[in-house]
Amino acid sequence: MINSREEVTRMIQATRIRKDIRWSQVAAALGLSKEWTTAACLGQMAMSKQQAMVVAEIFDLPEDAIAWLQAVPYKGSLPTAVPTDPLIYRWYEVVNVYGSTIKELINEEFGDGIMSAIDFSLDIEREADPKGDRVRVVLSGKFLPYKEY
Amino acid sequence: MINSREEVTRMIQATRIRKDIRWSQVAAALGLSKEWTTAACLGQMAMSKQQAMVVAEIFDLPEDAIAWLQAVPYKGSLPTAVPTDPLIYRWYEVVNVYGSTIKELINEEFGDGIMSAIDFSLDIEREADPKGDRVRVVLSGKFLPYKEY
Amino acid sequence: MINSREEVTRMIQATRIRKDIRWSQVAAALGLSKEWTTAACLGQMAMSKQQAMVVAEIFDLPEDAIAWLQAVPYKGSLPTAVPTDPLIYRWYEVVNVYGSTIKELINEEFGDGIMSAIDFSLDIEREADPKGDRVRVVLSGKFLPYKEY
Amino acid sequence: MINSREEVTRMIQATRIRKDIRWSQVAAALGLSKEWTTAACLGQMAMSKQQAMVVAEIFDLPEDAIAWLQAVPYKGSLPTAVPTDPLIYRWYEVVNVYGSTIKELINEEFGDGIMSAIDFSLDIEREADPKGDRVRVVLSGKFLPYKEY
Amino acid sequence: MINSREEVTRMIQATRIRKDIRWSQVAAALGLSKEWTTAACLGQMAMSKQQAMVVAEIFDLPEDAIAWLQAVPYKGSLPTAVPTDPLIYRWYEVVNVYGSTIKELINEEFGDGIMSAIDFSLDIEREADPKGDRVRVVLSGKFLPYKEY
Amino acid sequence: MINSREEVTRMIQATRIRKDIRWSQVAAALGLSKEWTTAACLGQMAMSKQQAMVVAEIFDLPEDAIAWLQAVPYKGSLPTAVPTDPLIYRWYEVVNVYGSTIKELINEEFGDGIMSAIDFSLDIEREADPKGDRVRVVLSGKFLPYKEY
Amino acid sequence: MINSREEVTRMIQATRIRKDIRWSQVAAALGLSKEWTTAACLGQMAMSKQQAMVVAEIFDLPEDAIAWLQAVPYKGSLPTAVPTDPLIYRWYEVVNVYGSTIKELINEEFGDGIMSAIDFSLDIEREADPKGDRVRVVLSGKFLPYKEY
Amino acid sequence: MINSREEVTRMIQATRIRKDIRWSQVAAALGLSKEWTTAACLGQMAMSKQQAMVVAEIFDLPEDAIAWLQAVPYKGSLPTAVPTDPLIYRWYEVVNVYGSTIKELINEEFGDGIMSAIDFSLDIEREADPKGDRVRVVLSGKFLPYKEY
Amino acid sequence: MINSREEVTRMIQATRIRKDIRWSQVAAALGLSKEWTTAACLGQMAMSKQQAMVVAEIFDLPEDAIAWLQAVPYKGSLPTAVPTDPLIYRWYEVVNVYGSTIKELINEEFGDGIMSAIDFSLDIEREADPKGDRVRVVLSGKFLPYKEY
Amino acid sequence: MINSREEVTRMIQATRIRKDIRWSQVAAALGLSKEWTTAACLGQMAMSKQQAMVVAEIFDLPEDAIAWLQAVPYKGSLPTAVPTDPLIYRWYEVVNVYGSTIKELINEEFGDGIMSAIDFSLDIEREADPKGDRVRVVLSGKFLPYKEY
Asked: Any idea where the Cyanate lyase C-terminal domain is (chains A, B, C, D, E, F, G, H, I, J) (predicted)?
């Protein structure tokens, strides 16, 4: 019996590595973006029954896993508060170095409020560049204003 | 005598609030993006002498501040490892929830390496949307591969 | 010259204590709830110019403070990640003990998503009870669903 | 042999996911609120023998589990001091942003003391709203005054 | 102008040291226990106006301090989560080594619930002993049971 | 083969829960206080061979456990530096809120030194009270003075 | 089935210890530096298929491991933020004591920017010295300047 | 009166920025390496009287500072355990990613022991490279073996 | 007016540096060991009135300081839980590496209990050695056994 | 197959407890001090092949363990940064309370440098005392001076 969503995530990763499956293939099978698909497979999003069945098929998951993939997971994908992996740390560094800048500019443009991390999408793509290709990431989040009451 | 870059940052913020200066005005005066300009004014980037003089003029800074603005600062703009401000926390949350996804997708596309946070730019803008305007942020960083040796 | 919003908060607190001003009086003067008013005076919300002028009047604040009260503050009102004050700790304890319950029930009712802490209101009142009066707190936050993309 | 209450909690969760049981059904079977029921099933409350037997039946728990459900558990349902799950974090954020406000207003109304987290109840419900349904949460805790001695 | 209760505490401590005032004298002047009195003077309890005036007299406090002593303080008297002072650490050690024991025995005797730290009193006294005098401390707190709802 | 004292503690707890053994029964069998007995069974004290045999009998422990119960354990019974369980947290809160008071009063009475947590005893009992029974705890520790040398 | 790269690393270490394999032998078999080779075997670098097959042969790894060695690992080789092992701590100490010096001198020579930890190589060798041999370590990293935009 | 070495460090930095002094000039004046000189000026090393007088002259330090520069400082030049500045973080990252590698290779070559951080020198220089100049850093530390006794 | 013992410590350190006073001279003036004397001057021990007067004389302390030196201080002389200064860190390392050894051997010799850090003395001296002088430190603490009750 | 040195340490501890082996017996069999011997058995030192074989014999270790005992271990014997065990905590307390004293006195006697924790020995013995036996510990470490370069 599967006891946690983390077990399902480990099964998915182990199969992905063994069978060399690409996230973009999984995304295509689901008809969704590779960003949402990957996050969902890594235990950060809840799937519909149909999505869970597709994913279970691709990754040879046991029957039980289909129910776990539909349950809302306890989110958080990193093992430490300050990430140790260099790729992920660079993102944390951006938040640390540019955090006050991001706050100032969003507040200057929109007033007091936040950029939603829920009504949110992420898009990662390659940007060809003669001086070395770049990673281009677009984050789009609804602005949510604080209100008086 | 000014003893640290933080003092200069506090002077800039106090004047900006008092005189209601917009970061985009400062950026226009420097002929640079509002993102770099704000980061530099908030003590995260080193300015050229000319830039420092423009900024000193705008914010009524004392003579000493011009030298400090040219010195390379000790970077890091947030008071705690996990940010408490909701706007900035949402970014930390994105790193936490989507961190493993970002890593998987960049590694899938580019192989082992990172997205540079140095050869990097940030662009924040309003995206009109009938269901509520969105904050659209574009991050662009050069991909830097790990190499064997 | 005032250098930070925290200075304004300290001034407000010192005057409030000295002159024994009640938050509900301030709220009445602003025509808003005592919850929003107190949060704003304690440096967690940005005020409009008119609100800032009313508050400055009540608390004998210097001219400069009016601009600071309108600036969007860096939020976070507690000195430590785990609060030491018993009253506030009880709330942290509720999050700790009931956190998984709250998540399960909101997710059971609404699906995957969050209860907004931005489009949010708080209402604190006395509930008379023969066995000892109770504090009754109503939190109301818009449900924000995660979406596929 | 079952070695800890956490094992029982994991069994309950695994069965709940597999058999798609709703907390409100469990609450109905116990004749208690869904809030207390969920907290108890998630290892935060001690049950009576009869309650434990009902729960064991619903979740196919082994004999041993009935004794564990009656033992007073070591409480605390979150894996980190600052929660990483966005839904639960929003609650932590409310404590962080509104903590000083909550303290001021309860103390203004009642004097020095706390709102009990023991003689306490929680009620979570959907509040229909044309602009998007809201989560409405009512917390009710007995006020406990500090006394001189 | 006094800006925080901590300032008042520092004034009290400085005068106490300089004038060699004993806490038991202050307690006698207030007609209360030395435990409550000391805690109140060290910024952990709110005083009545009359008490504050007595204390202000004893410690030569300025006018402003009388209002601060009546305000409910942000409690917490130690600079670090794990105390460094050996005397106070020993108490933390007792909580660490005997914590599970205390929980088991209180729960065995009373069922699920807590010993109140609010409806609580503390009594510290010397216990003569031929093998070396002992510190005898009596803690008395109301038992508060968790209830179903 | 048993690999750690923690394993023995888990076996004791599992049997205690399953067979509904009371700590006071174990204490009676050992002829010692329930406080020392519970602490010893929970892995905080070393037992004599005879005590270990009595305990092994009561809790159906394997042969190996008898040696482990006699070994001096690595003490510390709580999983986090700041305890999450509400009952134990209240004790931590007492140390936090009253810590400076306890230090002042012991030092005022005895001079510089500590209250021993080794030459120490703990006594927990029910105190009947018409307004609700109270938990009465007596701590007694030898005073140990710092000396010059 | 192998579930994580850490498992592969543990297998490699266990075989290396049992068969007394030297890292320099592995490096020679791969035709690469001992520094990169060791880091890769310890789970910090991704290998090519051919490299993975050589390593699998040397360390008797199961079939599955070959795929895991080619996957980009989650990097970070130390169990705590401040390392406890004395050899590794000395390096942390160098960063702590000389960190501000390193920053000043690199910034003085190159301007604002960093020394890459990605386009980076490490070389560790013995330096004979009559007063006791020395460890000589050469770090070489590309300088990456911050740019305006 | 100067109260700490940190004050002297701040004075040195403020003058260095204001007068645009280069560390290599200071090193030349002392006849020592720029690495040791910078570390000493930044409060990490004790100077001789003569060195202190040279430094005081260069940086216009008051009389008192000369004594402080000769006192052995409390070392540690970074404000947080995990550095936030990107340049210094890259060094921490090297320790994190390559830490186990460094340990393996030094132990393989020398046996159990450490590379001294005391009998240690550091040399930072520019390495011209057509693909972009590199920072080349040489660390040299005496190997100190653990011994039996 | 002096507000804390830390201020007195800073005054002592500043004068000691300025006038180049040696701790052994202070110890000789007090007729006590240099270890106790230094600890007392650095704010870790309470002095008698006469001792305080001698110390005040040596370090030109103001009148107020004499009372502060007699008050029992809040002990703890290091700014961080894990010390950053290499000399002090080596001691922390000894506790970390040899901690379990120290515990095993004291427990093997004495049974369950501790080595007192209160009824304790410290003696630091130079041990001439042809291979380089050594620091020889003798710690002597009374053994305090845990007792049954 | 043994996967880590910690496994070997656990086997040694389990056998030591079961067979009631004394560390001094092991030390005698090795012809070394009980301090080094215990540290080595607890996974803090690397053994020679011959030593490993003696230890394996005494503790009935499997073949594999002999190789692991010769490998240089990742050192650090305590589970938390601030130790919870009272005996080991007292040592941490000594570092905390006397840390600045130890630093001052070693630096006063020897100049800037450290006491080695590598070229180091530890000796723990019983010191008979009519007022209660004492633990006498001698630490001896080579003084290592910082040098200019």
From this structure: 77-149
